[in-house]
C-alpha cells in the first residue's frame, strides 16, 4: 500500500546554473524522495535509478503519446513521431526507422564507418591542437549521417546540427533557448517536406527508401517528414555529446586510456561508462495514465513526470561510487543514458558503432590524449560540452 507523501522543491534543473553543473541538484532531488514536485515548472521529477527504470518499462502507465516534453503546447505540435507515440502506432512508426538502425542492419556499414574514423583521427593528429566538439564530435556524424540518409550534397548538411539542437531544446520549458529555435524548426520542417518529394534524396539511401515506400503505397506519405526527422535527431546531438565527453574523460583518466590501448576488448564497456557518467539525454517527461505506485508513493492519472536519466545514472542507491569514471564497472550496460525500454534511443546502435570505431582508431594511433578545461553547453535536454581543446600525442 503506497502511503508516502511527495516532497516539494524549488530546484530548477533548467536554470543555467543547474544545466552547467547539475549533479548536486540531482543528488538533492534523489535525497528528497523517489518523486519530487518541482515548483519552478509544476511537474513531478523522478531522479532515482530504480524508479526511472521502472517508469521506462511501463509505457502503458507512463505514456509518451501526449508528448515527452515539459511544455504542453509544444507536446501537441510534436505528436505523431516515434518519440511521442505509444503502441501499436509507435511500433509501426519506429519500425520504419529502426530497420536501418539495428545492429544487424548496420553491419554492412561497419568498414565504411571505421574508415571514416581512421581518416578523422589521422587528420586531427596532423592538425595538432583542435576542438573536441567542432573538429571531432560534430565532424564525424556530419561526415557519416547525411550520406547514409541521402541528403543532397549542396543542401541541408550545414544546418543539421542547428536543427537537431532546436528540436531537442523544444522538449524543455518555454524559455529563451526553446523560443530562439522556433525559426530553425520551421526551416527544418520545410526542408524535410522538400526531401519527402521523390528524386530529392540520393538513390539507394535510407531516406530514399522511405520515399519509395510511400510512393509505392507501403507507408502513408504524410508520415515522411516526421520519419526523416526521426532519423536526424537521434543520429546527431546525442552522438556529439557522447563523443566530446569521450575525449574529455579519457584525457583526464590516462591510466584507463592505457588499458584500452593495451586491450581493445575494453572498448564496449568503456563507451557504456562514458554514456552512464555523462548521459547525453538529461531526461524526458511522461504522462501518467492510471493510478500507479512508484517508489512507495501514489501517482494519479494526469500527472506529468520528468524522468531524469542523468540523475538515475549517478544514483548511489544503484551504482557503487557513481561519480567515478571506471571502465571496469560491472553491469554498466544497465545505464539509462540513451533511455530504456521501447522508447530507448532509436539511433543508439549507430552512436555505439561511431564511438567504438573512433575508440579503436584512437587506441591504435594515439599514446595519450591531452585535454584542457571544458566549457559546458547550455541546452534544455542535451548534456554536453560546448568546447574543449585537445591534443593527440602519438
Biggest sheet overview: 6 strands, mixed
Q: Gap between N and C termini, in Å?
A: 61 Å
What do the pLDDT scores average to? 92
Count of helical regions: 18
Principal-axes geometry comes out as globular
- Helicity range: 40-55%
Q: Give Rg in angstroms.
A: 21 Å
Strand content: 5-15%
The count of strands amounts to 13
Main sheet: which strands, in order across? 1-2-3-9-6-4
The secondary structure category is: alpha+beta
3D structure, described in words:
The structure is a single chain. With 394 residues, this protein is α+β, with helices and mostly antiparallel strands. The chain has 18 helices and 13 strands. It has helices spanning 16-20, 23-32, 49-56, 72-77, 89-101, 103-106, 110-127, 132-137, 139-149, 160-169, 176-179, 182-195, 206-215, 224-251, 254-262, 267-277, 309-312, 348-365, and strands at residues 8-9, 36-38, 43-46, 62-63, 129-131, 283-288, 292-294, 297-299, 304-308, 368-371, 375-376, 385-387, 389-393. The strands form four sheets. Strands 1-2-3-9-6-4 form a six-stranded mixed β-sheet, sandwiched between helices. A three-stranded antiparallel β-sheet has the order 5-13-10.
Amino acid at each position: 500500500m503506497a502511503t508516502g507523501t511527495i516532497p516539494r522543491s524549488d530546484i530548477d534543473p533548467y536554470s543555467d546554473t543547474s544545466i552547467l553543473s547539475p549533479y548536486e541538484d540531482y543528488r538533492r532531488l534523489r535525497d528528497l524522495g523517489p518523486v519530487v514536485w518541482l515548483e519552478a515548472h509544476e511537474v513531478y521529477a523522478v531522479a532515482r535509478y530504480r524508479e526511472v527504470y521502472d517508469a521506462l518499462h511501463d509505457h502503458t502507465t507512463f505514456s509518451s503519446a501526449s508528448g515527452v516534453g515539459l511544455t504542453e503546447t509544444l507536446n501537441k505540435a510534436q505528436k505523431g513521431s516515434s518519440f511521442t507515440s505509444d503502441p501499436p502506432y509507435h511500433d509501426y512508426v519506429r519500425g520504419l526507422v529502426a530497420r536501418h538502425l539495428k545492429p544487424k542492419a548496420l553491419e554492412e556499414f561497419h568498414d565504411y564507418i571505421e574508415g571514416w574514423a581512421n581518416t578523422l583521427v589521422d587528420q586531427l593528429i596532423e592538425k595538432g591542437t583542435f576542438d573536441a566538439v567542432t573538429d571531432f564530435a560534430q565532424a564525424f556524424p556530419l561526415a557519416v549521417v547525411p550520406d547514409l540518409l541521402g541528403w543532397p550534397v549542396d543542401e541541408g548538411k550545414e544546418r543539421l546540427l542547428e536543427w537537431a539542437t532546436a528540436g531537442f531544446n523544444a522538449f524543455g520549458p518555454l524559455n529563451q533557448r526553446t523560443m530562439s529555435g522556433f525559426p530553425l524548426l520551421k526551416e527544418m520542417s520545410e526542408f524535410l517536406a522538400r526531401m519527402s518529394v521523390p528524386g530529392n534524396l540520393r538513390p539507394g539511401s535510407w531516406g530514399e527508401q522511405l520515399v519509395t515506400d510511400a510512393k509505392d503505397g507501403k507507408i502513408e506519405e504524410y508520415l515522411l517528414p516526421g520519419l526523416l526527422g526521426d532519423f536526424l535527431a537521434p543520429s546527431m546531438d546525442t552522438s556529439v555529446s557522447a563523443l566530446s565527453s569521450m575525449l574529455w574523460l579519457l584525457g583526464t583518466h590516462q591510466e584507463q586510456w592505457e588499458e584500452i590501448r593495451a586491450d581493445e576488448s575494453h572498448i564496449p564497456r568503456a563507451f557504456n561508462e562514458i554514456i552512464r557518467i555523462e548521459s547525453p539525454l538529461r531526461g524526458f517527461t511522461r504522462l501518467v495514465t492510471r493510478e500507479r505506485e512508484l517508489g512507495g508513493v501514489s501517482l494519479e492519472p494526469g500527472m506529468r513526470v520528468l524522468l531524469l536519466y542523468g540523475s538515475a545514472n549517478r544514483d548511489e542507491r544503484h551504482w557503487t561510487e557513481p561519480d567515478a569514471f571506471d571502465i571496469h564497472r560491472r553491469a554498466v550496460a544497465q545505464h539509462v543514458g540513451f533511455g530504456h525500454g521501447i522508447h530507448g534511443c532509436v539511433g543508439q546502435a549507430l552512436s555505439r558503432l561511431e564511438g567504438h570505431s573512433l575508440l579503436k582508431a584512437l587506441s591504435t594511433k594515439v599514446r595519450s590524449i591531452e585535454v584542457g578545461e571544458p566549457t559546458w553547453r547550455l541546452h534544455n535536454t542535451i548534456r554536453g560540452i560546448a568546447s574543449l581543446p585537445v591534443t593527440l600525442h602519438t
